[in-house]
Amino acid sequence: MLDNLTQRLAKVVKTMRGEARLTESNTAEMLREVRMALLEADVALPAVRELIARVKEKALGEDVIGSLTPGQALVGVVQKELASVIGADLGENASELNFATQPPAIILMAGLQGAGKTTTVGKLALYLREKKKKKVLTVSADVYRPAAIGQLETVTAQAGADFFPTTINDKPVDIALAALDWAKKHHHEVLIIDTAGRLGIDEAMMQEIAAVHAAVKPIETLFVVDAMLGQDAVNTAKAFNDALPLTGVVLTKLDGDSRGGAALSVRHVTGKPIKFAGVSEKLDGLEAFDATRMANRILGMGDILALVESAQKGMDIEAAKGLAEKIKVGGKFDMNDFKAQLAQMKNMGSLSSLMDKLPAQFQQAASGANMDNAEKQMRRMEGIINSMTPLERAKPDLIKASRKRRIAAGAGVQIQEVNRMLAQFDQMQSMMKKLKGGGMMKMMRGLKG
Ligand code: GDP
């Protein structure tokens, strides 16, 4: 596995602990590591150079605050600069699509064959229909592959949008104009035009899509690029950017294991905002692009936000609030609450898939723990609680030898396991008592001290 940038810098800075400021001499070696990390993440060299220059300028003279080491301080600068170069400083609305035109708003899709254009048309149609409540029409101007037209028809139907049928005997410009005419007559608010891609950059293809662009003057021209392309993304982006006035980029296949360096390269070459990220083959696998998260991914710092988000999604917020409320007003924490907590942990997704999203250093720390095993245990605990009567759940103190035997038999486990769970519950209950006394901070301090 690739080393985390933080870890690599930590190795370099061991010798310079205690330095109070980032200087030319103490950052030179660290910047070499930053450059390596970016190249390993498949960022193209010119983009790496520009970023390093920016980082150098911002880092010089920066104070190393508090308990940070110079390496950590530098990582902070790199992370911030990288995120802002990728798009964080474009503001929140940078990834919004523009509809400020006479309807229909036309979106033209450009990119190589296999980049994910057709799939992205389906995703956009679904997103626009469901989230933006738009009436959407799609059309394929790919007159080379009949299968591509069929594929677009299928994804459009899946997205619940309308499809304008065409044949390979039509001309791309005529197709686009006919679809536009149809969209106007039938009051579509958005028309998405899919185009032919080739396997490589091709002059005839560029002229063809430029002609379609000139004919319908789309308000959005989106360049779709596969994140797995790595360094090659640069040449492709340059060719399309030269041929067409792009308005934005869609970076696809970010669910793969690429580090996403293409994001920086493509931004560097086109200067256009990355509006969306493709994160699965399915039609709901489209996300608004998040530059800060992308910067963390490129630097190998894990997708912490994604983790937090999936935790929030899975958690029953109302149940969590109810529990918090109960503890605050001095209610007793009983087995029912314990069970609800277990269920919430399960909702957050499998532990091992959550682990995948953690930064490398946490993954390392936890690699000793057997996640599958932990999950199995959680299910068994739930089985035990399910075998209790409502009264037992409310008053676990009642559970003595004969009840334990009955519960163990019901859950298909040994009595020892029931004992263990009751002991864990006891621990949890006394922890909750401390929390009740407003002791959260106290407890945290206790853990640290
Ligand atoms: P086009 O030739 O540019 O129209 O590309 P397609 O839409 O046909 O996509 C090519 C392949 O990439 C298909 O197998 C898609 O399912 C797949 N694909 C597209 N977007 C994504 C994505 O975000 N994630 C993943 N995993 N696969 C994708």
Automatic annotation (TrEMBL):
InterPro entries: AAA+_ATPase, P-loop_NTPase, Signal_recog_part_SRP54_M_sf, Signal_recog_particl_SRP54_hlx, Signal_recog_particle_SRP54_M, SRP, SRP54, SRP54_GTPase_dom. Signal peptide: none annotated. Keywords: Cytoplasm, GTP-binding, Hydrolase, Nucleotide-binding, Ribonucleoprotein, RNA-binding, Signal recognition particle. SUPFAM superfamilies: P-loop containing nucleoside triphosphate hydrolases, Signal peptide-binding domain. It is an enzyme of class 3 (hydrolase). Its EC number is 3.6.5.4. The keyword Cytoplasm applies. One of its GO terms (molecular function) is 7S RNA binding. GTP binds at residues 111-118, 194-198, 252-255. PROSITE patterns: SRP54 (PS00300). It catalyses: GTP + H2O = GDP + phosphate + H(+). It is found in: Cytoplasm. One of its GO terms (biological process) is SRP-dependent cotranslational protein targeting to membrane. One of its GO terms (cellular component) is signal recognition particle. Residues 273-286 form the SRP54-type proteins GTP-binding domain. Gene3D superfamilies: P-loop containing nucleotide triphosphate hydrolases (3.40.50.300), Signal recognition particle SRP54, nucleotide-binding domain (1.20.120.140), Signal recognition particle, SRP54 subunit, M-domain (1.10.260.30). Its main location: cytoplasm. The keyword GTP-binding applies. Involved in targeting and insertion of nascent membrane proteins into the cytoplasmic membrane. Binds to the hydrophobic signal sequence of the ribosome-nascent chain (RNC) as it emerges from the ribosomes. The SRP-RNC complex is then targeted to the cytoplasmic membrane where it interacts with the SRP receptor FtsY. Interaction with FtsY leads to the transfer of the RNC complex to the Sec translocase for insertion into the membrane, the hydrolysis of GTP by both Ffh and FtsY, and the dissociation of the SRP-FtsY complex into the individual components. Composed of three domains: the N-terminal N domain, which is responsible for interactions with the ribosome, the central G domain, which binds GTP, and the C-terminal M domain, which binds the RNA and the signal sequence of the RNC. Belongs to the GTP-binding SRP family. SRP54 subfamily. Part of the signal recognition particle protein translocation system, which is composed of SRP and FtsY. SRP is a ribonucleoprotein composed of Ffh and a 4.5S RNA molecule. This is Signal recognition particle protein. The gene is ffh.
